[in-house]
Each structure stands twice: as structure tokens, then as C-alpha cells.
Amino acid sequence: MGYLKKKTGVYYLINAVLVFLLFFVLLNLINNRIINRTSTQILTLICINIILAVSLNLVTGVLGQLVLGHAGFMLVGAYTSALFTMNIGLDLKIAFPISLVLAGLMAAVFGVIIGIPALRLKGDYLAIITLGFGEIIRVIANNLKITNGAMGLSGIKSLSTTKNPSPMFIYAYALAALTVFLMFTFGRSRHGRAVIAIREDEIAAESMGINTTYYKLFTFVLAAFFAGVAGGVFAHQIGVIDPSKFDFNRSVEILIMVVLGGMGSITGSVISATVLTWLPEQLREFSKYRLLVYSIILILVMLFKPSGLLGRYEISIPKFLDKLFARITKKTAKTKTGGA
Amino acid sequence: MDFFNHIINGLGLGSIYALVALGYTMVYGIVKLINFAHGDIIMVGGYMVYLIMVKWGLPIWLAVPASIVICAFTGMLVERVAYRRLLVHNAARISLLITAMGVSIFLQNAFMLIFGTDPKLMPPLFQAEPFKLGSFELASTTVINIVVSVIMMIGLNLLVNKTKIGKAMIATSEDSSAAKLMGINTNRVISFTFAIGSALAAVAALLYCNTYPQIKPSMGNLLGLKAFVAAVFGGIGSIPGAMLGGYLLGVIESLTKAYVSTTLTDAVVFGILIIILLVKPAGILGKNRKEKV
Q1: What is the predicted pLDDT for the residue at A230?
Q2: Which of A57, A100, B46, B153 is at a distance of 20 to 30 A from A163, taking alpha carbons?
Q3: In degrees rounded to 5, what are phi and psi of residue B59?
Q4: For the purposes of burial, counting CB atoms within 10 Å of the CB of B98, is it exposed (0-12), middle (13-18) or buried (19 or more)?
Q5: Distant-in-sequence, close-in-space partners of B11: CB < 8 Å, separation ≥ 6
Q6: Are the C-beta atoms of residues B202 and B16 closer than 8 Å to each other?
Q7: What is the CA radius of gyration of chain B?
Q8: Do A295 and B113 lie within an 8 Å CB cutoff?
Q9: Which one of B34, B113, B225 has the shortest CB-CB distance to A288?
Q10: What's the burial of A8, exposed, middle or buried (CB within 10 Å: 0-12/13-18/19+)?
Q11: Residue A26: pLDDT band by 50, 70, 90 thresholds?
Q12: Residues near A223 by Cβ (< 8 Å), separated by ≥ 6?
């Protein structure tokens, strides 16, 4: 056991080093203008989508419940944080992080309101109720005065400037890394194991003394929180938000990232979020067909590989290195014995 | 008198919801699937009438049955292509739901590419003078909606309770593996259920186009969602429940529009769903089934 624990520690360390390494490389490239403005924006959007996909994966993959209104939580977060930074009059450097926390909390409150009726029941009510929520929240945002109706909010200040293009990326990257880390540890914690038990067999889990409603709600609200935070970063990244940016298609895009990457696989979500954000930017002329293609992929994946492309498999670089080292040491050991 | 008028209008609107809700409830009763694509079948029905009547200029007596048949076939096709494999392999519920979602997005985007995103105007289908009762006037569309929906429901009840295939449907929804052992071809029953549900959706599409003469690719979204709320309201899986839920939802919506707010009706409908799930999750006429391990 002690050996295993030590090994996990080393794994975490290697992963952390790799994440920091990637971060500094990208940061330097951005600051030295080798990655231009548009590409920086795409990188930031990739990070935002990673937050969204990984958090949705928590509910869809780990808990096994379908959520069709993730964009709704994003909308709540985006408006909350944008309205906060626009009206508070604080320096943006201080106001922005506070606004992100508020955005997450607000989305979490909505998550509780929706989650309690939907998750107390067995069955698929969460899917339909979140679908409804996504539609209704948009209708409400379209009609309220504070959200400026269909015109939306404009002039949301970004931390990035032409002189200093990196702050938004730093925030997005750090939050994405944090989300991935939290989701990863969540899956291996007491809570995570309870949630996996619920996914596998709700009745059995309940009879083992797991408070199913509590854990289901907890997971759902956690995902809503991160969606809200992602919405907050998104609002400040693009500067102009209106309800149509958070429509049903947006929820579907996040869902397909999760499904394609593998339901339950965090690294799968990260990879598919990266590819599915980057690819459409390169194939702009095909944007008309994007959702048609997405829907066909969705159906085909479900029919032939229902767990998604990666399933629950996690790609792990440390493990890979471990295997590599093991092979090399084996080889050297062999040659040594052969030589003797 | 105004109040009475709103209620009648609500019943007219509720007729459409009820017909769509029947499709949801029948499919849910048999395969325990929330068929997200059901709302889009309405859209298919609407566009078929548009295609046949406006684009090809054929008469209405041809367009109406044709669109109903096409919708029934679309429903069967969707079941055969997208759901059958998962149902036979007893796949996880979430896979079925995601597939249904995929079908819904596919239908919407396919029609968007074929017909364009802009709304299309429909010619009036069935026209009649408003009905007058003293000082009281009723729009012909409302009366047609109510009459057609009642006829459809009587027909459906006869079909389910009196015919062989109807009994097979009941048996399959009670216990599909036992039904299989009794020699019922459950795959055929499921296929037939999708066909009937989709045909009813096509009728709803006709009534909808007659009442609100405009169609667009995303029209099935909200309509489908509301019909689903109606099905849950009445008790999902129960056929009389879907009818009752549909009419009630129509009346509630009409009264909300008249007395509360026109823009927030959708939010009110959604609020109803939350309240039902909190207070009586089985719906008004639904049975509380004990889950056996």
C-alpha cells in the first residue's frame, strides 16, 4: 500500500510538472507574439471548453445522468460575472476573480433549484428538466431589463490588452487545470466512489447506506458551479454576450465533447474539447454542416461504442513513462545477464 | 364571459399538446425512453404539408393523409435505425437518451439545410366561419382542434383496448420479456407504437399549422417540450393522463397569457413541471410503481 501511495504521489508530481511546463511554453509564445491574437483567443476558448466538458463529464460520465442545459448554467455565470465587474467600480484585477466566484455560486444556486425536484426521482427527468431550464433561462434573459434583453451586454472589459495579451489565457488555463485536478481527485475520493456506486446500481447503493439524493445533487451542483465559472471567463474573454450565445446548440456542443471523448474519461474530455474547439475554427466554411455532422457522430458513437471513444480509460503520461522505464530496465537487465 | 373564452381557447391549444403528449407517453410506456425526436416529427409533418401543398401545388385532401403517412414512416425509420440496436442489446438508458437527442438535432439541421432557417408561411388548411352562440364567438380553429383531438383519442382508445395489436402493446408495456414468451413480436409492437405516436404528431402538426400558420425547423423544440410536460403532468405512461395533461396545460397557458404575462408563459409551464415533480412525481393519473430488485 505504501508503495502504491508513493507512486501516486510521484504521478501527481510528474503531471504537475508537465502542466506547468506546457503553461510556461504557451505563455512565452503568447508574450513573444509567436502565437498571434486569434490563436491566443482560440487557446483561451479551448481552456473554457475543457472546464465545461470536464464538469459535464462529472454528471454524464461519473454519475450517469444526462444534462442538456449546461449552457444555461454558463449563461447564469456569464451574466452574473459581467454584471458584477461592470457595476461594482472596483479595479478589474480584483473584481474579476471575485466575479468568477460569484458566477459559480449563482450557477450552483440554480443547480440546487433544478436539481432537487429532478434528482429526487429515479429515471431520466434530469435530462428533460435541464433541457427546459436551458430554454427558459434564455427566454428570461431575453425579457429582463437588467440583462438588456436580446441585445445582451456589451463592453465587458477584458484583462487582456494589446500590450499584455496573456492574462485571460492565464486565468483560463489555471482554472482548466484546477478543474481537471479537482475532478480527478473527486473521482477517487469517498464522494466519488459513492457517485460511481449510484451510477452502477442506484438501489444497491441506497441499500448500502449511500444517501443517493445528496450525492446526486452534490455532483450536479458541482458541475453547475464550474459551468458558471466557465461562463464568467467566457463573458470577459469575448466582451459581448447575448442570450443566443448560450442556446441549446451550445449545450449540445459540450455534450458531444463529453460523449466523443468518453463518458467517464477526463483526459478524453480534455482531448475532444481541444480538438472540437480547434477544428471548427479551421473549417469555417463547413460551419453550416457542423451540427448535422455532430448529430450523426453522436448517433454512430452511441450505436457502436456507447461509452465514447476512450470509454473510461485515462491517458496517463507518468504511467506511460513508467512502462517505458520498466521496459528499458528489463532490457538492460537482460543484456547484463546475457553478458555474464 | 372573457374567462370562459380563455378556457375554450386553452382547450384548443391543449388539444395539440394532448396529441403530441400521447406519442411521448406511448413510447415511454413501452420502451421507457423519452423520445426527444418526437417534437421534431411535428416539424416534419408541418414541412411535408408545406412541400405538398405550396411547393407542388397539390390539393389538401392529398397533403393531409400523405403527411400523416410520411410521419408514421419517419417514426418507424427512426426507431429502426437509431433505437432498435440499443433496445435489443439492453443498452444503458443514457445511451438511448443521447441517441434520441442526436436524432432530434439531425432532423432539425437536415430540414434547416433543405428548407432554410427562415420561417415559412402556411396557407390556411381548413377554413370556416367563426361559430356564434349569442354574443359569444368561437374561432373555427379552436373548434376544429378540439373536435379532431377528441376523435383521435376515441380512435386510439379503441385501437389500444379492442384490437389484437393494442393488447399486444399493453402486454409489452407491462412486461416485455413475458410478452415475448407469449409469442408477441415485441419489435413489431415497438415499431407500431412509434408509427402511431408519429401519426398523432402529424395530426397535431396539421392542427398547429391551421392555428398558427407558420413553420420553422426549430418549431418542434418548445412544442415537444411542453407536450412532454403535459405527459408528465397527466402521468407519463398513462394514455388518459396524457390527454388530461394536454388539455390542462393548454388551459393554464391560455390563462397565464391572459392574466399574468405573455412573455413568461413558457417559464410558467416549466415551473409547473418542477412543482409536479416535487409534489406528485407520478402525475395526476400515473400509478406509483414499486421498483423490484
Answers
A1: 96
A2: A100
A3: -70, 165
A4: buried
A5: B142, B145, B146, B247, B250, B251
A6: no
A7: 19
A8: no
A9: B113
A10: exposed
A11: confident
A12: A55, A56, A58, A59, A67, A70, A73, A111
Whole-number Å distance between alpha carbons of B14 and B134:
25
A145's enclosing H/E stretch is none
Cβ density class B158-179: b for 16+ within 10 Å, e for less: eebeeeeebebbebbbeebeeb
Question: Which residue of chain B has the CA closest to A293?
Answer: B106
Residue B215, φ and ψ in degrees, nearest 5 = -130, 145
CB-based contact B281 A124, cutoff 8 Å: no
Distance CA A115, CA A105 (A): 15
Provide ipTM, 2 decimals.
0.87
Give the C-alpha distances (Å, rounded to integers) separating B39 from B117, B162, B253, B266.
17, 28, 19, 16
Q: Per-residue pLDDT tens for B153-207?
A: 999 999 999 999 999 999 998 888 899 999 999 999 999 999 999 999 999 999 9
The answer for residues whose C-beta is within 8 angstroms of residue A16's C-beta and 6 or more apart is none
Contact B102 A296 (CB under 8 A): yes
Task: Spell out the domain ranges in chain A.
Answer: 37-249
> Which of B94, B277, B291 is nearest residue A117 as measured by Cβ atoms?
B277
Answer yes or no: do B101 and A292 touch at CB < 8 A: no
Closest-CA residue to A261 (of A307, A319, A292, A320): A307
Kindly tell me if the per-residue pLDDT of A144 is higher than 50.
Answer: yes
Q: Is the pTM of this model over 0.90?
A: no
Residues 6+ apart with CB under 8 A from B289: none
Put simply, whether B268 touches A (Cβ < 8 Å) is: no
B29 and B160 Cβ atoms separated by less than 8 Å: no
